Amino acid sequence: MSKTVLATGGAGYIGSHVVLALLNAGYRVVVFDNLSNSSPKAIERVARISNGAPVLVEGDVRDAGALDTLFENHKIDAVIHLAGLKAVGESVARPGLYYDVNVAGSSQLLNAMLRHGVSRMVFSSSATVYGETGGRPMDENTPTGPVNPYGKTKLMVEQILTDMTAASSGWRSVVLRYFNPVAAHGSGEIGEDPLGVPDNLFPFIAQVATGRRAQLDIFGNDYDTPDGTAIRDYIHVEDLARGHVMAIEHLFSGQAADNRTSVVNLGTGQGSSVREVHRAWEAACGFDIATRNAPRRAGDVAIICAEPGKAADLLGWRAKYDLARMCADHWRWQKRNPEGYR
Ligand code: UD1
Fold it and tell me: pLDDT tens across 279-331, in order?
């Protein structure tokens, strides 16, 4: 019998790609999502392009009663916990909300797992938990030091999960620290659908390319990098999604040990500057995309790049897709769905 995975936040950008990858790998999937920053249409489309249909349960991870009903109605073998808030600026303005949804919500979920005897979790974390390395690639032993409430909530949940995994009989967990997830499924059917003005580089360029915004502001051209613009490790969301399936497989394999939490980076190890990303987008679209130089954005650093070796050693995972493919797939999604799911 195939195993059933609960994906909290499974209707969201990364979640929908993870759900699709799980279904295509033969898992049954239950999605638990409050639809605060996601659309049920993502789930409908996943059902259309996959080998199976996910079950969507609408609910909030802070609601202990809803979690009890969820675990009573579905026999869950493992949880991938993607539900959470993720906007850095909003987390600075409304930290209480971030601690409530991300930390208290995760704690409710973990305690519900304890009550219902579910002992496997993959947690969606972020490279934002790392402190400054002066541009050196970040491995999993890089000291942590998040500088905003969003990053702090991710680190706190990692710590709660690690302690509960150590203390609870039969528990095993994996923390996945994502670098910069971008792009969309190659079908063009699912992708990122930001509310309001996008904060992040790829969705912003995508809206310039469709004509919804006038130009891309390049935040800083005086960084200590070859072309002066900041460098990030962008990772295709399909590669990221495959990493979750491999993490689940690892938890059910003989290689994972009880009471242990493994922390794993998901990045390519290959950095790209803002100008390189802009050029790759122009190549993918086949037309010019207007830019304007703008001041550095507060809180940004010159270079963030993964050392991805542990994912290869522990999970057998390596990123497959390059920047050209990321831009082409993101553009296909945006062109077909200029207003996202609306
Ligand atoms: C941001 C978040 C990070 C989160 C990640 C998810 C901040 C400070 N960090 O990372 O916590 O995990 O998204 O993907 O928000 N840029 C422009 N013009 C734009 C937008 C971005 O030049 O209109 C530049 C930025 O200055 C940066 C690079 O593009 O150098 C990437 O920016 P972005 O996509 O927002 O990601 P991060 O800031 O790396």
Answer: 999 999 999 999 999 999 998 999 999 999 999 999 999 999 999 999 999 99
Residue 26 lies in a domain: yes
Among the listed residues 200, 180, 330, the one whose alpha carbon sits nearest the alpha carbon of residue 269: 180
The Å distance, Cα 132 to ligand 1 centre, comes to: 15
Residue 78 lies in a domain: yes
Q: Is 232 in the pocket of ligand 1 (CB under 6 A)?
A: yes
Show the domain range for 43: 4-182+234-267
Q: Alpha-carbon dihedral of residues 213, 216, 219, 220, nearest 10 degrees? A: -150
Q: What is the pTM of this model?
A: 0.98
Is 128 near ligand 1, meaning CB less than 6 Å away? yes
CATH number, residue 252: 3.40.50.720
Contact 66, 60 (CB under 8 A): yes
Q: Whose CA is nearest to atom 25 of ligand 1?
A: 219
Residue 338 lies in a domain: no
> Is residue 288 helix, strand or coil?
coil
Long-range contacts of 253-259 (CB under 8 A, 24+ apart): 255/314, 256/172, 257/172, 258/169, 258/170, 258/171, 258/172, 259/165, 259/166, 259/167, 259/168, 259/171, 259/172
- Band (pLDDT 50/70/90 cuts) for residue 5 is very high
Residues 88, 137, 134, 322: is their CA dihedral positive or negative?
A: negative
